[in-house]
Amino acid sequence: MTTDSSYEGTLKELNTDLGVLRYHEAGDGPPLLLLHGSGPGVTGWRNFRGNLDVFAEHFRTFILEFPGFGVSDDFGGHPMLTATDAVLRFLDGLGIDEVALLGNSMGGIVATQFAIAHPDRVTKLITIGGIGKNLFSPGPGEGIKLLMEFTDDPTRERLIEWLHSMVFDPAMVTEELIEERWTQATEPDTLASARKMYSRAAFEANTRAALESDATPYWAQLHKVKAPTLLTWGRDDRVSPVDMSIIPMRLIPKAELHVLPNCGHWAMIEQKSAFESAVLAFLLRKEGGDR
């Protein structure tokens, strides 16, 4: 078991044919894979560094760094597609047949898509906002619009405005947070990767392509998720408003929804204790023969 839970003490590498995947690992027990979201300066470590020790007490816990976000090698292509592929390469590379998946925002979509495509490999699924479809709120949400503005014209002021849209409590947007996000977000290769997803031109092109495509969107396939699923949501999420949870809550056969008050998009950070308590209760619960 890893006892040094620092960044350096948990950091590892996995070589693949497309490049190096970097990840953090701590703890022993059944495998639990944490998948980060998107946005300026994001990394898996920054999303989940505060939760790693708690989960590592019960699970062999991994934080995967997706390609194209400045830590793992960039695999090329659209970051969402390479992220989904990276999960499969990561699990196969480590010889992990079954895993519990926990994903924040984009990571939740990736985890859900993996659970649909590989139902026998996912023991349990936990998402933090992100998945589903706007029913009553405008789409895209406020946080996504601010993200597009920053991606097209990255200024410090736009970054701060976007960070405030991510949280309920403005005090969480510290100078330290701003600085670490700014440094990573403006690194040229990372910014170029982000523009494949969130420049206004790319976002509108992807939206048009989805409307014109005959392919079934992932949110209309949620009934295919076999794993027991915990949907966690910040009641004050301004990126993926809480009405988005209704479709996955209703369609995923074994889904339950936990809404956290006074909480924005980063439930694992802003309501850390309550989030960890709900997730651990769900993960440690015996499913009575479901698995």
TrEMBL record:
Keyword Transmembrane among record annotations: no
Transmembrane segments: none
Tagged with keyword Disulfide bond: no
Top-level taxon of the source organism: Bacteria
GO CC field: membrane
GO molecular function terms noted in the UniProt entry: hydrolase activity
Classification via InterPro entries: AB_hydrolase_1, AB_hydrolase_fold, AB_hydrolase_sf, Epox_hydrolase-like
Protein keywords: Hydrolase
Coiled-coil parts of chain: none
Every AB hydrolase-1 domain range: 30-270
Protein name stated in the entry: Alpha/beta hydrolase
Organism: Rhodococcus oxybenzonivorans
